Amino acid sequence: MRAIMYVMVILILASCSSARMTDTWVNKALIISHPKKVLVVGLTENLTARKIFEEQLKTELNKRGIEAVESYDVFESTFTSLKQTEKDIQNEIKKLTQDGFDTILISVVKGVDEKESYSGNRYMMDYYWRGFGWYYFLYQDAYFIDGYYDRYKVYHIESSLYNLKANNEKSLVWVASYNLVDPRQINSSVSNYVKAIIKSLEKEQIIPNAF
After folding, report:
1. Are 35 and 102 in contact (CB under 8 A)?
2. pLDDT tens-digit series, residues 116-159
3. Phi, psi (5° rounding) for residue 100?
4. CB of 179 closer than 8 Å to CB of 23
5. Angle ∠(193,172,45) on CA atoms, nearest 5
6. In this structure, are residues 35 and 66 in contact, taking their beta carbons and an 8 Å threshold?
7. Inter-residue contact 52 to 186 (CB < 8 Å)
8. Residues 209, 56: contact at Cβ < 8 Å?
């Protein structure tokens, strides 16, 4: 009985990954019009998560009439796998503007925390088994359910939107920090994160609402 209840709790926790915004900043002076062509960049060593993130964010931006392109379709593989100099990066930015990109939306994992929660002991309050025999049989060795520890991770992620046509030193349009809690399922976790980004960009009127 205890094992069944423990498994049920773990399954519930595993399905509750969420993305919560912790901080945000907007440069109102640079919000002149909605982006026309955005390069979506997910900066992470997890190539699967990067691909899913860039594809989902591209889809959401497309729904809002914005052309979006995944970085893995634009950058050479060596650009993301090798450390670049400032000159290399500036040359890449020059190529992007020549190809019609006016905006870059980049997301970076800035840290990971290991967390631990304790459920605490609690008394059993199950009155479905009203017969004394069954009740005593089920609970003869347990007056309360033992507490347990659950360990999970919190990813600290930062997303930033840059205007490629502005002065390079003052091109940041929007930045927001998020805590992604317990991302055990990549698809659902990335989906929650993308929804949080889109919601914030819509709220600040940086992008239009979906058609």
Report:
1. yes
2. 665 655 444 554 545 555 555 555 554 444 556 667 788 888 99
3. 95, 0
4. no
5. 45
6. yes
7. yes
8. no
Q: How far apart are the first and last CA of the chain?
A: 50
Q: Which are the contacts of 204, defined by CB distance < 8 A and separation ≥ 6?
A: 24, 26, 31, 174
3-class secondary structure, 157: strand
Q: How far apart are CA 21 and CA 156, in angstroms?
A: 10
The neighbour count for residue 30, using CB atoms within 10 Å, is 18
SS3 113: strand
Element (H, E) at 172: strand 172-181
Sign of CA dihedral 26, 27, 29, 33: negative
CA-based diameter of the chain, in Å?
A: 80
| pLDDT tens digits, 55-68 | 999 999 999 999 99
**Distance between CA atoms of residues 9 and 177, nearest Å:** 29
Distance, in Å, from the CA atom of 40 to the CA atom of 50, rounded to the nearest integer, reads 10
How far is residue 146's CA from residue 70's CA, in Å, rounded to a whole number? Answer: 48
Contacts of 85 (CB under 8 A, 6+ apart): none
Please tell me the pTM assigned to this model.
Answer: 0.73
